[in-house]
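Regression report. Comparing outputs from two consecutive submissions.

Submission 1:
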Amino acid sequence: MAFSQGFIEELKMRNPIEDVVSRYVDLKRAGRNMVGRCPFHSEKSPSFTLFSDHFHCFGCSAGGDVITFVMRIENLDYPDAVNFLADRCGMTVPDDRKYFTKTEKPKLTRERGFAMNKAAARIFYENLKDPDAAEAREYISKRQLSASTVKHFGLGFAKNSFIDLFEKLTALGYTLDEIKANFLCGVSQKTNRPFDMFRNRIMFPIIDTSGNIVAFGGRVMDDSKPKYLNSSDTVVFKKSKNLFALNFAKDLLLGNVKSELVKSGEIILCEGYMDVIAMHQAGFCNAVATLGTAVTPEHSRIVARYAKTAYLAYDSDDAGKKAADKAIRLLGEVGVETKVIKINGAKDPDEYIKKFGVASFSTLLSDSVGQIDYRLNNILVKFDLANPDEKLRALRECCDMLSGIFSDIKRDIYIQRLSELTGIKQDSIASQIKSSKRHTEKKMNEHMNTENQKKLLHFNDRVNPDAVTCPAAVEIEERILGILMLFPEQFSKCDSVTPDDFVSSFNKSVFEKLSELYGGETTDISSLNEFFNPEQMSRIYDMRQRRTELTSNGIAALNEQIASLKREKTRLEAKKNKVGTNDELQSMIERIRKDKGLE
């Protein structure tokens, strides 16, 4: 094993799962357990449950112990998750910290990745003083960024050179493979020579909420394309799980720091780095931006940890409207109220603040429209309301949208609002919404029934692909494994069961690892994190969780399931042999028909 069981047990003891999870999930007491909204899928009603030593989501079936949680939430492998928790509680990791679950060491460790990014950020920052950076300094001046703002965000300059950064990083001891894995250089397919990924660009370090530089964004200083170049995903960076400037905004959002311009629990979502920086310089330090991508479900769940209300300060063009529509939908799924800032007279927040000032932008925030008003207006402007047919289509689309509002009071308010906008009676609108709601509920029920059927038949089961061909055997296997994990002492008492009795490869591998575990110094299934990824660990903990809800988990129940598994495997093998015999018979018949000239 990578780490001794004693070390892992102490690590878990010094990192209580409630303390770790509460950094990411707003937990509330529910009897002996804690509940909250799941950080791994979007939901309005809490289905994430924290038990004394593990977590389980009754919505998406995610589950595991504190190590599994860190692996999943921070996108780490097993050794790095252990290192993460050790750093958190001040433990010294043994020399075997260099162990990796793969047969080869990765090209870049997180520790080296963070250190390299810090060195690169320092190089980019120092480059701004270079004579070659005159254009960059002029660009920063033109954007009216102060020296303190440049220093605060660590802005820098990537020289117009193919090897400047590469040579400086190699001089610091980093290898080509490491630099390439961190998206700071590439290798030419023609010449096989390395080249800097960022050249002749203003550089924006991307910093996570722990203060680590995880990636970079680079912007050109002219109209060349691409305007922005962002780091690809690396061992230290996942684009869909980071927001630019959240490291600065989080204390304001949580109310740890006070500001006259910013209320705690309110966040401003922008499209680009420069918008965010301009807002922070103006005092709106709750502004953040996604990193070269639209809002993702992961982004929305991050926002939900810090804010109850999100103001969308997107560009007013078609792309900005599409981005706002997507953000409204995803943020609504996690219970974040959204408001849309109408930026008139400027193309983006940066330009607006420069033209009209801070006070005027504060007024924009106050005058921002809620997402329902925004969506209603966007529908109505698409149609000619003077034309009866178009007006009817507009009303149907508006009613379809309003039928998704769960609150009766809120729905009545917007029925009145739509009536005022269109001149149609409220009763008629309410009747159409009722019809749309019935139709939507019918489609949702059909979809849920289809999905439940697929789940029962194990369609698209990525954890255990064998389950679709032998669902009955897999169900029995999971019962056996669930009992063995819940009551390890029964492992030595049960009737003879071997790995060969298992039909599915995944469950067979789980049984083999449990056999090794129970034959050693512990029965703590936390050690399985070393061998299985977080999604697989969720399935393993789900097997155990399902048995906790049953009272029949004794030795008799276990032996009964073992006998059932043996019978099911015998049946499947007989069926397979029968199919083989039939194939042979069919081939023989075809040969006879061919010999007799019957084909």
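Submission 2:
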Amino acid sequence: MWPRSLSKRRIRTTSFGLLCWPSLRRITRAAGYEIRPALGNVSDLAVWGRVPRSRDAIARRATANIITFEDAFLRSVVPGQKSPPIGLTIDDLGVHFDCAQPSKLENILQTGDLDDANLLMRAANGRAFLRHYGLSKYNLVPKGWCRLPEDGYVLVVDQVQGDASIEYGGANAQSFADMLTAAKADNPGKKILIKTHPAAKDRMGHFSAQPHTDTIVVHTDDTNIWDLLEGASKVYCVTSLVGFEAIMAGHKPVVFGLPFYAGWGLSADKKTISRRMRGLSADQLFAGAMLLYPFWYDRTRQRECSFEEMAHQLLAETRHRWDGLKPSTMLGMRLWKRRTVQQFMAGAGHMAKFAKNADAAIDRAKANGQVVVWAGHETEKLAADCKAANVPLHRMEDGFLRSVGLGAELTPASSLVCDDCGIYYDPNSASRLEKLISASVNLPDFARIRAAKIREQIIDAKVTKYNLPTDVTLPEMPADKKIILVVGQVEDDASILKGAGGVRTNLGLLTTTRSENPDAYIIYKPHPDVVAGLRSGHVSKVADCDYVAAYQNSETLIALCDEVWTMTSLLGFEALLRGKAVVCLGMPFYAGWGLTRDQGMECDRRHGGVDLNGLIHATLIDYPRYMDPVSGLACPPETLIERLSNGKARNGIPLRTLAKLQGLLSSYIHLWR
């Protein structure tokens, strides 16, 4: 993190982008710079890289102090101005790709303190994070998107002609010819895969005219770079950033130029640079290039952030694109939800369409699309017809950190899940969440650390699914009795219909709890939708409880109790987060893993060995998608938790008005449910 003073340093520039592109101006201001037009001689000159305009500005102002701005090594979801950068390198010594003179990055790598244990742990976890999720400088497609040759090929990395990093990296067009010649000579009989640059569709690469042969394949498809690196036996490059990523993936790339990552003992260099005399580990290189050198920017909060915060935000925006790569046709979506649903599914620029019936949805999705149905409206026939038509089917539902306010009050969701296997509340078949929870026993360290921090953040912020305000005072609780919180539910809710055992009503839940805990002090918490008269599940007889907490905040009640009894309520999961014992009479998504006492259904697919951090990571990080209600951007759970805690996730005036009207017309509930 860069130390920053409140006053901004005023510098001048001839760069149109630094002056006029709003997203760049926001980042440079956050970094402490006020950039103005350069008129005549200036003392401090800001330039963008070494594009021709920058070279000319530097040449005409030889006495100026040059500050070079460039994209950081993780830039955005896609190239270009439609996807603004999430970080910059700001260098007052040189520029990282110019081997002729030292840069700020080279100084960090040559003389910086790169042995700090905490720094190296962050670097190791950062490398693992990028590799695990398949994040790179640009992030067009996810891992597994494209079919590649059988593992063991030799990867040769092309670049576009005229790239400044080639000239300033001590290379030229002949370097690419030499690279291919060496790759063939060093690896006789092996398949060589030449990967073109993403921008080569608009600009010529050095191998654009290379013919395909039995042993040489020019790969132009959009591909996740980590797939390419993990399948390669050897990597050859000139100055491409892929060489740096190859080192992060465990390769020792053969390098024909002098990029910033060459000369440290981590690559097989065809050229040498005498200034670089230090041997580095991959973690030390990553620490310098990714943790210490760039300025990272949080686009949701519009402020400086750490590498980890930036990586979480980039992943959220990248997944937003990946989820929308196939055009979506929606089914079973109520009118008031449609704007929110479209926002969640529009990451790749496709506008989600809404179909009147299943046949129309499937017909529209046959041309490389997908059907997304609100989970409660899925039928066996829909699933069978989608399978027969070879159309992907996804089920959508609210996420587990939803909003400030109820869904039944038409509060838009800030979190949704989209499941390609089943749906989390139905234990009768596997869901994507169940598979993620099962696989969580093998979570890498960075994932467990993040899950533990999110749990701590939720507890500190007192955040739950709906985050309803309350000012109702609780009675004094007996000190000599076990306090049990019994969680009421909407009795026709899909999680009851699919996941409840023999006990399927709130009255039955209360009766069972009392019969097994005759001396306990029992608090009954009815579901807020039921209290509002919007859903079924009212209990007229409450003799089996000591207190009905109709209007108290669930977080307060969880903190107060010793144990929670539920059928399938999400409140059981929220209680687990807070270290409470949970008894399940049904089979919610968090049951069956050894974390709860299960007295209802069984699920043979679920097993013990899952710990709480694994459950949290699957449930709150990998499974849902989040949308920041303030910036309108896809965001990580950490951002939404912050918004929920300060109330910045409320529905707008039109929906609040409609919700009040809905309450007056509660007997006509079928109109909006």
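Expected: both submissions complete independently.
Actual: both completed, but the second showed a warning that disappeared on reload.
Relevant detail on submission 2: The two ends are 48 Å apart (CA to CA).
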